[in-house]
Amino acid sequence: QVQLVESGGGVVQPGTSLRLSCAASGFTFSRHAMHWVRQAPGKGLEWVAAIWHDGTKEYYADSVKGRFTVSRDNSKNTLFLQMQSLRVEDTAVYHCVRDWQIAAGAIYYFEDWGQGTLVTVSS
Amino acid sequence: DIQMTQSPSLLSASVGDTVTITCRASPGIGNWLAWYQQRPGRAPRSLIYASSTLESGVPSRFSGSISGTNFTLTISSLQPEDFAIYSCQQYDTFPPTFGGGTKVE
After folding, report:
1. Which residue on chain B is closest to A100 by alpha carbon?
2. Which residue in A78, A97, B17, B78 has its CB near the most CB atoms, within 10 A?
């Protein structure tokens, strides 16, 4: 059974940094591209970042490019999102998501989701 | 970016009803569309991919269809656990984009 458990959310001030983690289990983590998808309060879902199964490629939404960095540790089955220069509009629940594609990039179909971790950016 | 227009945003229904949710893609996306369900306190769940293929374990009362650039999610004989928010998402063109969501209450 696929499990994705996010952690690291909290309340931070604008301009500061935060690092999210996602512990994955129940599947071969190193064979799947992974994503972060967020949902701001009262808003729809928004894709944030993707990383290839082997970590060789990363892609970002324009809204976070240059501020967020996605990474992974396949030896520890863990996905990360380093967030810098946080803005009030980054306030959202951040979900860790498994891509359907196996060992061949990403198809951007989000097959399995974590429950999410809440990030609140407020002064 | 591909714009996904989802309607309605709110749908009132009763147990046993058949409900329909629609997404329109602009420009077109072939059949590369997925539907997701969000229930309070739970992780989002993928229901349908490639417009009409049910994910493993998803009840057969859920179905998806496509007509041109219009996509439809139909829930037949609504069950209590189906009251949730449903979102469509295109994965034809980067970046992937979602519809605004439909709350079934």
Report:
1. B49
2. A97
